[in-house]
Amino acid sequence: MTKCRNLVGVVLVALLLPVSALAQINQLIAQGESRSAENAQAQERIEKLADQASTLLNEYRTELKVVEGLETYNGLLQRQLDSQEREKTVLSESIGKVSLIERQIVPLMVSMIDSLDEFVRLDVPFLPQERQKRIADLRVLMERSDVTAAEQLRRVMEAFQIENEYGRTIEAYKGTVEVDGKPREVDFLRIGRIALMYQSVGGQFTGAYNKDSRSFEEISPAVYKAQMSNGLKVARKQKAPDLLIVPVPAAGGSQ
Q: Per-residue pLDDT for 2 more than 90?
């Protein structure tokens, strides 16, 4: 409605004005329309720029969140690295201590093996080959570079434990002993470290180890033959444990 009135006004004015004035008015109208179009285009550009700015702002905020997350992550990684460095320091110190302990314990183990060897040499001579082989194996083990000091120590302690157990057990095994100048196959009976006795197959010879003379000596079959037979059965778990009479050196060295 307003447009119509404006148009009527323009028409009336146009009818009343001369031709030159009418041309000027038309020019002004054209310029106004041109400016309106330019303003519309400018407004459109402004709106596009505003949209782009809004998009960039959102992207910037998103990137800020990513950066914050990365900073948090990097901080966590740094703390982990610091913790690992501390652990490395502690580990290096521990390795140094282990190396020192190994340098100290290896000579100790060698000394322990020497002591065990001497003990077996002076002990009651039961299972001599088995016990000497165990010691020889330990000496070989100590020279192996592929075996840790911990395993070497475990084996040395195991050997000591085995020797310790001998003092609390009874055992029967076969072997040879020299009787009347001849080697004879016999049954040995070991009762802890208290007594080591033997009996020939068939029971013809019975003897025992004398710790004082450090040799095997024959003993009275009438006294010990039956005891020896019972002891062998007990050791082989063929008979329930029972009291046994065994030869023990008395003062003065007699049995």
A: no
- Six token digits for residue 40: 């519309």
3 state SS of 171? strand
Give this prediction's pTM: 0.61
With beta carbons less than 8 A apart as the criterion, state whether 113 and 135 touch: yes
Structure tokens at 182: 């001849």
Residue 199 phi/psi, 5° resolution?
Answer: -145, 130
Q: Exposed, middle or buried: residue 99 (CB in 10 Å: 0-12, 13-18, 19+)?
A: exposed
pLDDT at residue 49 in the model: 73
How far is it, in rounded angstroms, from Cα 219 to Cα 208? 7
- C-alpha distances in Å from residue 102, one per residue of 8, 77, 150, 151, 158: 115, 36, 9, 12, 19
Q: Where are the domains of the chain?
A: 63-166, 170-235
- Sequence-distant (≥ 6) Cβ neighbours of residue 200 within 8 angstroms: 179, 184, 185, 186, 187, 206
- Of 112, 201, 199, 91, nearest to 163 by C-alpha is 112
d(CA 242, CA 245): 10
pLDDT band at 73 (very low <50, low <70, confident <90, very high): confident
What distance, in Å, lies between the first and last C-alpha atoms of the chain?
A: 150
190 has pLDDT over 90: yes
Counted residue by residue, the chain has a size of: 255
Residue 133: CB partners within 8 Å, gap ≥ 6? none
Per the listing, tokens 């065990």 go with: 116
